[in-house]
Amino acid sequence: MKAPAISLQRIYEGTGPDEAYKALVDRMWPRGLRRADLGLDEWARDIAPSAELCKWFGHVDERWDEFRQRYNAELAAPEQQARMSALLQAAGKRPLTLLYGARNTEHNQAVALREALLAHARKGGGRAA
After folding, report:
1. Does residue 96 contact residue 53 with C-beta atoms inside 8 Å?
2. Is the pLDDT of residue 126 over 80?
3. 39-45, Cβ contacts within 8 angstroms, sequence gap of 24 or more
4. What distance lies between CA 4 and its chain's CA centroid?
5. Would you say 95 and 17 are in contact if contact means Cβ atoms under 8 Å apart?
6. CA separation for the pair 110, 22 (Å, rounded)
7. What is the DSSP letter of 120?
8. For 75-90, b where at least 16 C-beta lie within 10 A, e where not — what string?
9. CA gap 97, 71 in Å, rounded
10. Tell me: the pLDDT tens digits for 4-60?
Protein backbone atom coordinates (compact mmCIF):
# COMPACT_ATOMS: atom_id res chain seq x y z
CA MET A 1 0.00 0.00 0.00
CA LYS A 2 1.27 3.45 -0.86
CA ALA A 3 2.00 5.56 2.21
CA PRO A 4 -0.37 8.51 2.59
CA ALA A 5 1.03 12.03 2.36
CA ILE A 6 0.89 13.32 5.94
CA SER A 7 2.40 16.67 6.85
CA LEU A 8 2.61 18.59 10.10
CA GLN A 9 1.81 22.25 10.64
CA ARG A 10 1.86 24.40 13.77
CA ILE A 11 -1.59 25.98 13.72
CA TYR A 12 -0.29 29.38 14.84
CA GLU A 13 1.78 29.50 11.65
CA GLY A 14 -1.03 28.62 9.24
CA THR A 15 -3.09 25.61 8.29
CA GLY A 16 -1.13 24.24 5.36
CA PRO A 17 -2.07 23.76 1.71
CA ASP A 18 -5.66 24.45 0.69
CA GLU A 19 -6.05 21.08 -1.04
CA ALA A 20 -5.07 19.11 2.08
CA TYR A 21 -7.47 17.57 4.57
CA LYS A 22 -6.80 19.58 7.75
CA ALA A 23 -7.21 17.95 11.15
CA LEU A 24 -6.41 19.61 14.48
CA VAL A 25 -5.03 16.83 16.69
CA ASP A 26 -4.87 18.68 20.04
CA ARG A 27 -7.19 17.75 22.89
CA MET A 28 -7.55 21.42 23.86
CA TRP A 29 -8.56 24.18 21.45
CA PRO A 30 -5.58 26.51 20.70
CA ARG A 31 -5.81 29.82 22.54
CA GLY A 32 -6.67 32.93 20.62
CA LEU A 33 -7.90 31.18 17.48
CA ARG A 34 -11.46 31.08 16.16
CA ARG A 35 -12.82 27.97 14.49
CA ALA A 36 -14.45 29.96 11.71
CA ASP A 37 -11.11 31.48 10.72
CA LEU A 38 -9.21 28.19 10.36
CA GLY A 39 -11.07 26.23 7.69
CA LEU A 40 -10.52 22.90 9.42
CA ASP A 41 -12.00 19.70 8.08
CA GLU A 42 -11.93 18.05 11.49
CA TRP A 43 -11.01 18.55 15.14
CA ALA A 44 -9.76 15.08 16.01
CA ARG A 45 -9.42 15.68 19.76
CA ASP A 46 -10.28 12.09 20.68
CA ILE A 47 -7.17 10.81 18.93
CA ALA A 48 -4.93 13.12 20.96
CA PRO A 49 -2.98 11.73 23.92
CA SER A 50 -4.85 11.44 27.20
CA ALA A 51 -4.87 14.47 29.47
CA GLU A 52 -2.82 12.51 32.00
CA LEU A 53 -0.16 11.66 29.43
CA CYS A 54 0.03 15.26 28.20
CA LYS A 55 0.41 16.52 31.74
CA TRP A 56 3.15 13.99 32.49
CA PHE A 57 5.04 14.81 29.27
CA GLY A 58 4.85 18.58 29.72
CA HIS A 59 6.90 18.97 26.50
CA VAL A 60 10.06 18.03 28.39
CA ASP A 61 12.47 16.82 25.71
CA GLU A 62 14.04 14.22 28.00
CA ARG A 63 10.65 12.49 28.26
CA TRP A 64 10.10 12.32 24.49
CA ASP A 65 11.00 8.65 23.94
CA GLU A 66 8.89 7.52 26.89
CA PHE A 67 6.03 9.79 25.76
CA ARG A 68 6.06 8.20 22.29
CA GLN A 69 5.97 4.70 23.80
CA ARG A 70 3.07 5.59 26.11
CA TYR A 71 1.15 7.38 23.35
CA ASN A 72 1.65 4.44 20.99
CA ALA A 73 0.25 2.18 23.73
CA GLU A 74 -2.83 4.43 23.89
CA LEU A 75 -3.13 4.36 20.10
CA ALA A 76 -3.02 0.54 20.11
CA ALA A 77 -6.47 0.42 21.74
CA PRO A 78 -9.19 -0.76 19.32
CA GLU A 79 -11.13 2.51 19.52
CA GLN A 80 -8.00 4.49 18.68
CA GLN A 81 -7.20 2.15 15.79
CA ALA A 82 -10.71 2.84 14.49
CA ARG A 83 -10.17 6.60 14.87
CA MET A 84 -6.90 6.41 12.93
CA SER A 85 -8.64 4.49 10.15
CA ALA A 86 -11.49 7.01 10.12
CA LEU A 87 -9.07 9.94 9.90
CA LEU A 88 -7.22 8.39 6.97
CA GLN A 89 -10.49 7.51 5.25
CA ALA A 90 -11.86 11.02 5.77
CA ALA A 91 -8.81 12.46 4.04
CA GLY A 92 -9.37 10.11 1.12
CA LYS A 93 -6.82 10.73 -1.61
CA ARG A 94 -6.10 14.26 -0.38
CA PRO A 95 -2.89 14.94 1.53
CA LEU A 96 -3.47 15.00 5.29
CA THR A 97 -2.19 17.90 7.40
CA LEU A 98 -2.02 17.32 11.15
CA LEU A 99 -2.31 20.63 12.96
CA TYR A 100 -1.02 21.17 16.49
CA GLY A 101 -0.42 24.07 18.86
CA ALA A 102 2.80 23.04 20.63
CA ARG A 103 5.81 25.34 20.33
CA ASN A 104 8.23 22.43 19.99
CA THR A 105 8.05 21.33 16.36
CA GLU A 106 10.13 18.17 16.87
CA HIS A 107 8.70 16.71 20.08
CA ASN A 108 4.91 16.88 20.12
CA GLN A 109 1.94 14.55 19.78
CA ALA A 110 1.44 15.32 16.08
CA VAL A 111 4.93 13.99 15.30
CA ALA A 112 4.16 10.76 17.18
CA LEU A 113 0.70 10.51 15.64
CA ARG A 114 2.10 10.94 12.12
CA GLU A 115 4.45 7.99 12.72
CA ALA A 116 1.56 5.90 14.07
CA LEU A 117 -0.73 6.81 11.15
CA LEU A 118 1.94 5.86 8.61
CA ALA A 119 2.49 2.51 10.36
CA HIS A 120 -1.28 1.98 10.56
CA ALA A 121 -1.67 2.64 6.82
CA ARG A 122 1.18 0.22 6.01
CA LYS A 123 -0.68 -2.49 7.93
CA GLY A 124 -3.74 -1.88 5.81
CA GLY A 125 -5.74 0.38 8.11
CA GLY A 126 -7.29 3.48 6.60
CA ARG A 127 -7.50 4.52 3.01
CA ALA A 128 -6.79 2.78 -0.23
CA ALA A 129 -3.70 3.67 -2.23
Report:
1. no
2. no
3. 39/15, 40/15, 40/99, 41/90, 41/91, 42/87, 42/90, 44/83, 44/87
4. 13
5. yes
6. 12
7. H
8. beeeebbeebbbbbeb
9. 19
10. 899 999 999 988 888 999 999 999 999 999 988 888 999 999 999 999 999 999 989
> How many residues are there in the chain?
129
Based on its alpha-carbon atoms, the radius of gyration of the chain, rounded to whole angstroms, reads 14
Quote the CA–CA distance of 71 and 52 in Å, as a whole number.
11
Across the strands, what pairs with 10? 100
pTM of the model: 0.91
Considering only CA atoms, which of 6, 20, 28 is closest in space to residue 120? 6
Backbone angles phi, psi at 21, to 5 degrees: -80, 120
